[in-house]
Amino acid sequence: MKAIDKWLIPYMRSVLRRRRRSSQPVHIMFALCDHYEPLSPAASQTEAVGDQRVARWLQEWPRLAGEFRDVDGRHPCHSIFYPAEAPEGAKRYVPQLLPLLESGWAEMEVHLHHRDDTEAGLRAQLIEFRDYLHHEFGILGKDRSGLPKYGFIHGNWALCNARPDGDWCGVNNELDVLRETGCYADFTFPSVPSPTQPRNFCNDLYWAKDRAGVPRSHDFGRRLQVGLAPEDNELLLVQGPVALNWRSRKFGLIPRIENADISGGNIPTPDRVDLWVKQQVHVLGRENWIFIKMHTHGCVERNAEVLLGTRMRGMYQHLLQQYNVGRESAVHFVSARELSNIARAAVAGETGPPGQYRDWRVGRPAIRKD
């Protein structure tokens, strides 16, 4: 039943709280988070295939992104979440991706698939990969204390041991481990129609914390609100838009589920763009700042055809033509890091154009080749 018991009621609540009218200009933060796996599926791919996939991104992404600029004069920035469980692949492909990172076409964060894991094993793996990215290349942003920080996406959507069968994780207190190893925000969700979808949150930015070592801590938490700072043991969870798409119906009757995915089987149409904006994912008290966090698996050829081709070009054109329109509304192309910073600035009560808070808490990475 598409995990409807997890998300339908929270979705209906999100519909009821939408802002109807406002005299304030609307600012739209758009981020695309990529589960970037050059060797996926690993069993059937060779290093040569991975090389070809990365080379295509190096060549075609700057060319496409270079056609578009937001209200701040910034190009789209691709957020690459690279899998930490494949250190040999990382040593091959992370250096190849440096030209995108150095030139600001992309930023890199942490992705992880793991199963039957322990807290100690998870902690060690995250620290090892974090330090590799930070010490070898300066890939990660740093906080105001100079400590490296990373964004996170859990493989197979199984954050906090969320699957009913307990597979693809094993660590109930994952939120604590993430926060303690430098994670500034989790970008795993939405996972609809997977049963791993958070039970009480849909179209939300919210704080969550571990609950005495039980699984699915992300089912509980509190929405971001202007003036209410996070507690020391809370982690930021950033959700992408979820909706019922009545303009795309199965059998002509049943609305399809919008789950923030861009892929070869889920192409980014103008109608979908409008639906993302309509969900109004925001910080309470700052309803005119809308956060759109999409996800993809960009190395798969079928998906790359969309992400690097005319479909994506049309999506950016529609987004800018319809929503980057002077005083009424503005589009800001942001990385995952920048989206998190802007959301936190809103919580702290900062005002003015949101683009000025891109580096508010976690600074821009200083990429090194040596």
From TrEMBL:
Residues 350-370 are annotated as: Disordered. Residues 358-370 have a biased composition (Basic and acidic residues). This is Polysaccharide deacetylase. It comes from Coraliomargarita algicola. It comes from the Bacteria.
